[in-house]
Design brief:
alpha/beta, five-stranded parallel beta sheet, two-stranded antiparallel sheet, 6 helices, 7 strands
């Protein structure tokens, strides 16, 4: 049995980013899980939206989506290809894993640009008389959230409901969140938070 995971990372700090440390632990654990635990495949596709940054969504790209494929000119075909590639990756996955730092109480703009390409009416959701309906039901998501302070469960954590709302719009309601918080509040707090987060990731990998 093969489980396909799409891992999306969004830290501007590269290998120094704590959300990338969570992502790397996820990848390492899935590799070990394949060989040691079940002998089944967990195939991870990695999309780094910082190393392969997308521009902010503009009217020209939106217009390309709204133009029938057989009527697009060369520029529109190139613009639509950005979203089509990301949608194909997402559709091919069983599990979406988002490694997300907290920037100014929100998600990185690079990750927002990714969501802007995959949240497309008629592709991942549709409008009905009863409101929007997600078209990607049956998938699950894992959010790996790295924060310098401690925000989970407080009014300042606007990031978690935002992510869950965007996932829910696509029909992804099975969402697990792993928090690594207080990472800038001293070495002891950081080490303890990362250890706890790594253990939570280990447990989630066992369920893939």
């Amino acid at each position: 049995m093969t489980t396909r995971a799409l891992l999306v990372t969004s830290s501007i700090l590269g290998e120094n980013g704590q959300s990338n440390a969570l992502a790397n632990h996820f990848k390492t654990k899935t590799e070990a899980h394949d060989v040691v635990v079940t002998h089944r495949d967990v195939v991870v596709t990695h999309r780094d939206v910082v190393a392969n940054a997308l521009p902010h969504l503009a009217i020209e790209e939106l217009g390309a989506w709204q133009t029938p494929a057989n009527e697009r000119n060369a520029d529109q075909q190139a613009l639509a290809a950005h979203s089509d590639e990301l949608l194909a990756e997402l559709r091919a996955s069983d599990v979406l894993v988002l490694a997300v730092p907290l920037y100014n109480l929100g998600i990185p703009s690079q990750l927002k640009a990714w969501f802007d390409r995959v949240l497309r009416a008629g592709e991942t959701f549709r409008y009905t008389e009863n409101g929007p309906q997600g078209l990607l039901e049956g998938k699950r998501a894992i959010i790996l959230a790295a924060r310098g302070g401690q925000y989970a469960g407080t009014e300042l954590d606007s990031q978690t409901p935002h992510l869950k709302a965007m996932l829910g719009l696509m029909g992804i309601s099975d969402v697990d969140v792993v928090f690594a918080e207080g990472l800038n509040m001293g070495d002891a707090q950081r080490d303890a938070a990362l250890k706890e987060a790594f253990q939570a990731i280990d447990q989630l990998v066992e369920t893939l």
